[in-house]
Design goal:
Elements: H1 2-12, H2 23-38, H3 43-53, H4 58-71, H5 76-81, H6 89-101, H7 104-161, H8 167-181, H9 183-202, H10 204-215, H11 220-241, H12 246-256, H13 260-274, H14 280-286, H15 291-303, H16 306-363
Membrane topology: Multi-pass membrane protein
Keywords: Cell inner membrane, Cell membrane, Membrane, Transmembrane, Transmembrane helix
Protein name: Type II secretion system protein F
Length: about 375
């Protein structure tokens, strides 16, 4: 207990400089808490054990605070709800459902599985983006060195030799001069584009427009759409399985989905349920859900196994996203190689054409 108090006391000084909690940290904590609850340990003791094992930081301080609140008479879900930046509505509502049903250990296990699968899907998508970004960064750096340091040297050589420059050579030299003197303009343009993008994304209509554009992109749009549907079905299925009311579950999912097009479809489902109708029909009308998804959800409603069907849909879509991500990376590799080959080829030809012309003139 003394250690806990000392830890909290020592860390409170740096509270204003605390960093956020990553999804990986939260997933690991939930998995470990699930294991301790399965072993039959009291929730307060479990929380203090885990807090003691955490690195000093925001999550450790928060867990100690939650443990103190629970020890002081609050329910676990009430204590968690005081920290919405770390524990979202999905997390809190699932814990609340587990407390009400007396199955907190089971709910934590489901929540842990859900978070692990979501984290795995996120890593796949991020991992696919790392390769092209790394290649483009390295290639861009090499290209900048060539344009700023190497091309000016050739420019001096050509001037001393008094060679008439072909059009593409002069074009390359002009580009090199502009890069050397106007590099700050490129940075300004990048900053302006990023600022405009953020302003558009912060507006509801702008976000809807961007999401529409993204979903219509070839390959990448399919990845975003299928990963959003996977998140929707897995989250909704997990909440329903945990005993959360369907309308409350849909509201939680709508707020967490992160895509305005899918969120509008979820809103239509909420309206349909309030009127006593089905889930499948508004999903079909949205045009964003494949027929197989709609039919599986329809069968799930009819058989009373909607939660199981939703999880199956999510599992299938996770596999499809994995295939699409692999395909996208496979397509990017030759495209990047061809693109870099064309750029390097242009530079080589532009630099050597005057030399070839000079050699030919000398041979005449």
């Amino acid at each position: 207990m003394a250690n806990a108090g000392e830890a909290k006391k020592g860390k409170s000084l740096s509270l204003s400089f605390s960093k956020g909690v990553s999804s990986k940290e939260l997933t690991t904590f939930t998995t470990q808490l699930s294991t301790l609850q399965d072993a039959g340990l009291p929730i307060v003791r479990s929380l203090k054990i885990l807090a003691g094992q955490l690195k000093p930081g925001t999550l450790q301080r928060t867990i100690y605070t939650v443990a103190d609140d629970v020890e002081g008479g609050s329910t676990f879900s009430e204590a968690l709800s005081k920290h919405p930046k770390i524990f979202d509505r999905l997390f809190v509502n699932m814990i609340k459902a587990g407390e009400m049903g007396g199955v907190l250990d089971t709910i934590l296990r489901r929540l842990s599985d859900f978070m692990e699968k979501s984290e795995k899907l996120k890593k796949k998508i991020i991992g696919a983006a790392v390769y092209p970004i790394a290649v483009l960064t390295v290639a861009g750096g090499i290209l900048a060195i060539i344009m700023i340091l190497v091309v000016p040297q050739f420019k001096e050589i050509f001037r001393d030799m008094g060679v008439d420059l072909p059009f593409i050579t002069q074009l390359l030299i002009n580009m090199s001069d502009n890069m050397a003197s106007l590099w700050w303009v490129a940075l300004l343009v990048i900053f302006a584009v990023m600022t405009i993008f953020r302003l558009i994304a912060s507006n509801k209509r702008g976000k809807l427009m961007l999401d529409t554009i993204v979903l219509r992109l070839p390959v990448f749009g399919d990845i975003v759409r299928k990963s959003s549907i996977s998140r929707f079905t897995r989250t909704l299925g997990t909440l329903i399985t945990s005993g959360v009311a369907i309308l409350e579950a849909l509201q939680i999912v709508k707020n967490a989905i992160g895509n305005q097009i899918i969120a509008r479809a979820i809103q239509a489902v909420q309206d349909s349920i309030r009127e006593g109708e089905s889930i499948a029909e508004p999903l079909a009308n949205s045009g964003e859900f494949d027929d197989i998804v709609v039919n599986m959800i329809d069968v799930g409603e009819e058989t009373g196994e909607l939660d199981k069907m939703l999880i199956k849909v999510a599992d299938n879509y996770d596999e499809e996203v994995d295939v699409l991500v692999t395909s996208m990376v496979s397509l990017m590799e030759p495209a990047l190689i061809i693109g870099m080959g064309l750029v390097i080829g242009f530079i080589v030809i532009a630099l050597f054409l005057p030399l070839i012309k000079l050699v030919q003139d000398m041979g005449q």
